[in-house]
Amino acid sequence: MRQYDAVDDDIHPFTIDVPQSVLDDLRARLTHARFPAEIDGAGWDYGTERDYLQELCRYWRDDYDWRRAEAELNRFPQSTTTIDGQRIHFVHARSPEPDALPLVVTHGWPGSIAEFTKIIGPLRDPASHGGDRAAAFHVVCPSLPGYGFSGPTHERGWDTRRIASAFAELMARLGYDRYGAQGGDWGAMVSTQLALLDPAHVCGIHVNLVIAGPPPGDDLSQLTDRQLAALSDVDRHLKEGSAYAQIQGTRPQTIGYALDDSPVGLAAWIVEKFRAWSDCDGDIERRFTKDELLTNLMLYWVTATGHSAGRLYYETMKSGRFGLGGDPRVEIPTGCAVFPREITRPPRSWAETRYNVTHWTEMPAGGHFAAMEEPELLVDDVRAFFGSLR
Predict the structure, then answer these.
(1) pLDDT value at position 3?
(2) Residues involved in catalysis
(3) What Rg value do the Cα atoms of the chain yield, rounded?
(4) 271 vs 244: CA distance, rounded Å
(5) Based on the number of CB atoms within 10 Å of its own CB, is 155 exposed (0-12), middle (13-18) or buried (19 or more)?
(6) CA distances (Å), origin 51, targets 39, 285, 288, 293
(7) How many domains does the chain have?
(8) Does residue 1 form part of some domain?
(9) pLDDT digits (tens, 9 = 90+) for 210-233
(10) How confident is the model at residue 326, as a pLDDT?
(11) Could you tell me how far CA 3 lies from the centroid of its own chain?
């Protein structure tokens, strides 16, 4: 684990307080936005549907209440610190239970710490949410470097391994010498790197995005119909839904101008993923309210981090750690929650080639944004996995 200068060790309380001028500017941009023409009957086939986006942006301008959302986020204690020259913003929700297990929960793209507002309370204080007080966690939710209130990254090299190194240092600064890690999307990759970098302190990891390929010589003819359908979904995603990763992985600055300058562009880029990757059957608001979608968008907009969030794809692809990478097997206990509309859903036997899988759950519902879509299922699974590691 890399060492850091002691002058960076200070932890500063943080409260979200967006200047009114930023909100006024946003409203003006939404008022004067230009929407491109659309082919009649196109729906979502060509990308984000114009009618839906226009209504969402109208709601954003006229009805959405950021100050209310800001107050809701500020219910969770937040701080910032500097690690490896980078500002790190994080929620630190300590449990009232003295024997609670520290847990670092990491988001991904196109998410943010706003994903976790439904799970922080039940994880932190299970007794107040119908659970066993023995299942409590001290919850730490960092904003990834380059995302949200961590602000843009300022130098090359901030890939998943470097982020994991910074988060290991963060947990040490908070006084936690034994902790768990949980995450989906980038959070799953960062949790994996934490397990590899800091196994002396990480007791286990729980991921809700399982990335694993077939072992050499694996007989695909032995897969079940459900497993074959999962592989077909991955193939479809690679062919029809992965262009965003190639753009952000090769030219993040180019798309960044649109994301940081146009709220409509930012909404179109991100909301389409919430529809495509969730268990919503094409009806995005079956899973997410407009307010939930917009609060997540606001954490990109008010911090102007659309460009730097995409840069994580570039850095991780350049370092060779995107997806499977070439890392050794994770030997500490690993729990996997597989949601039916997740992008990748490999068989357990494949996951076991990469992880010491001691807990495996195939969920009845939910997709890529598990903490927002199925918070109770996710919380229950996290409790069950770490229950044997306390």
Answers:
(1) 40
(2) 185, 313, 368
(3) 20
(4) 13
(5) exposed
(6) 12, 14, 17, 16
(7) 1
(8) no
(9) 999 888 877 787 888 888 888 888
(10) 80
(11) 26
